[in-house]
Amino acid sequence: MQVSVLFSGGKDSSLAAILLEPFFDVELVTCSFSLLPVGDIARETAENLGFAHRVVRLDMPVLEKAYAMVIKDGFPKNAINYIHSAAVERLAKDADVNFIADGIRRDDRVPVLDISRIRSIEDRNGVHYMSPLKGYGRAAVNELVDRYLVIEEDQSDNVIKADYETELREMIRQKDGPEKINDVFPAHVQSHVIERKS
Amino acid sequence: MQVSVLFSGGKDSSLAAILLEPFFDVELVTCSFSLLPVGDIARETAENLGFAHRVVRLDMPVLEKAYAMVIKDGFPKNAINYIHSAAVERLAKDADVNFIADGIRRDDRVPVLDISRIRSIEDRNGVHYMSPLKGYGRAAVNELVDRYLVIEEDQSDNVIKADYETELREMIRQKDGPEKINDVFPAHVQSHVIERKS
């Protein structure tokens, strides 16, 4: 059985892949709008982890709509959830994909898919959507990350990652200038995975 | 790192243990009020699966209170949740236990612990509570069970299992007679694990 794990290069999606590895053939999938070379960045991390990797292009109107949402809201939650939902839907329509996974944790507030949306995606597309970390709290995730991964953590504007936020920030930068980014994205710590611990 | 997995001998707690096995030293723990020999039944299943196993005695007042709840409510949800919560609390107070896991799935409505209760147990006792199947829907669980486990399924009154329901039903039988059981426990399909698929 193959599982396609939505992969940002961060610790959560990396750990999700590691937890699935004994039971599935894991491929990591990074979604990108091609606004920044996030696919290449994620590929390098995926290779360091020893997983197959591919980049899936998401349509630019999805990012345009997410941009409109974050500007209107003044905070990124709904925009990030919208992109995540579009990414899962995009994978679910892939004829070769039966199991889709992501790195959402128990304590995450964003991104998150509500249960009605999950069941709709599963039923319409005949796929299984899984969040292997959904039953793990932050502290348990950190214990496992510490055991299996070498990571670097820094403020979000210093870490190059392949998550949805990265290209959404870039679109804001292009349209409204860099100072606008800080209006809607509060600074927070991001993680980037270097390699596995041996 | 050792994890203590609450174990009923059913497919969900067995699968939870199997998903944790590559990453933790797994011990299966069956909670019992000693009203029925459910610990012995679970031990046999645990041995078939190749996991360490122990039985933990829960205090009879817990079962008495659960009995009062199910009789008052007319349905078992709150009583089962109460016993489950007491079982997790009991394990959390064990000085040797740092990680506690159970077999709760995404689509389960009972037993389930709400997030406030989980965080309270974790913070008060310095433990990590994990539900490895919480991010898996019923269909995905069934695919994995089918791959890794040989099970038998039957109506609940025909399957001898070591779950909370078994001893709660027995207390109702002793106090109110067997016909009362069907008033509060709707018949439903239960699973019992035989062994692993090789």
From TrEMBL, chains A, B:
Keywords annotated in UniProt: Hydrolase
InterPro entries: DUF7411 (IPR055834), Rossmann-like_a/b/a_fold (IPR014729)
An example Gene Ontology molecular-function term: hydrolase activity
Protein name, entry field: Alpha hydrolase
NCBIfam families reported for this sequence: PRK14561.1
